[in-house]
Design goal:
Alpha-D-Glucose-1,6-Bisphosphate, Chain A, domain 4, 10-stranded antiparallel β-sheet, alpha+beta, 34% helix
Length: 304
């Protein structure tokens, strides 16, 4: 049996830039999730999970896979309404993206996924990544993510639990749910601290990801579905912010899929050359050339 890792958790950072936009005009005030917002998100996320499982068990999203073969091998779309769904007391963000890594195997994609120490090199927004523990095919992971939008930047620590399933030798899928999300104040400085739970800026209160990996003759197809709960847009500014948030959401998902594909391609090339691969060396080199856009220092990743 193949053993997966946390490809799903990396998709969490797709949501963050969108919700950062949502909170940017009101960063001075704290936001606490309301019970009805959490209940609405939980209900929505469960429906999305059941629909995802039905597609996976039914052979996958055939139309999405066919579109990947015909086009440039990458597609992103809103998974619900226009990607941003209003609920009582909050916003649900729901996007789905898919990418084809030609010439790759499922094993290579899973090997890249479990290179936790390399996540900050693979994914531009990931400052740090730590595997906290494993119980069979269930993984506990901590990610530190830093993003900026609309003149505002923020850092989040996200603890997530990811369970992988292996229906057969060519399929794997994962269900990931955030166990805790904490906003970090003064990240990387001696004064660094977590803001009290529920008393942060409301950039991201809940997050889930649903990931499917399928190996076919031409390569590996990865489908990543991201869900998140955030505070609502500030009153009277929704008409201005929402179109920006939609564009940013699409671009964030595309960037994550491109980064994942680059890392797997590097692994494929290394295997073909017969070398000892660090699957993300090529991606890390490219990131080093363009620099760290956040300018933040590496942060502590000690577990709670």
């Amino acid at each position: 049996m193949r053993h997966g890792a946390d490809a799903a958790s990396t998709a969490l950072r797709c949501i963050f830039p969108i919700v950062l936009i949502a909170g940017a005009p009101a960063v001075a005030g704290a936001a606490e999730p309301q019970a009805d917002a959490v209940a609405a998100y939980d209900e929505y996320a469960e429906r999305a999970r059941q629909a995802f499982l039905a597609r996976v068990r039914g052979g996958g999203d055939v139309r999405t896979l066919a579109a990947l073969q015909r086009g440039r091998g990458l597609t992103v779309r809103p998974a619900g309404e226009d990607g941003i769904i209003g609920v009582s007391g909050g916003l649900v963000h729901h996007w789905v993206g898919a990418v084809l890594v030609r010439g790759a195997t499922l094993e290579q994609a899973l090997d890249v996924s479990r290179a936790y120490a390399d996540y900050p090199a693979m994914y531009e927004s990931v400052v740090a990544s730590t595997l906290l523990g494993r119980d069979g095919d269930t993984f506990r992971v901590r990610l530190r993510i830093r993003e900026g939008a609309a003149g505002v930047s923020a850092t989040l620590d996200i603890w997530s639990s990811v369970r992988y399933f292996y229906p057969d030798a060519s399929h794997a899928y994962a269900l990931s749910t955030s166990a805790e999300i904490r906003e970090v104040e003064d990240a990387g400085r001696p004064s660094e601290r977590h803001l009290p739970a529920g008393r942060d800026h409301g950039y991201l209160w809940r997050a889930s990801t649903l990931t499917s990996l399928v190996e076919r003759d031409d390569g590996v197809y990865a489908v990543m579905e991201t869900l998140g709960l955030s505070r609502r847009f500030p009153p009277l500014l929704g008409w201005l912010i929402e179109p920006i948030a939609r564009r940013l959401g699409r671009k964030s998902v595309e960037a994550t899929l491109e980064e994942f594909r680059a890392a797997v391609r590097a692994r494929v090339s290394a295997d073909a050359a017969g070398g000892t691969p660090s699957a993300v060396h090529a991606a890390a080199d490219r990131r080093g050339q363009r620099g760290n856009r956040s300018g933040s220092a590496p942060c502590s990743t000690a577990s709670r």
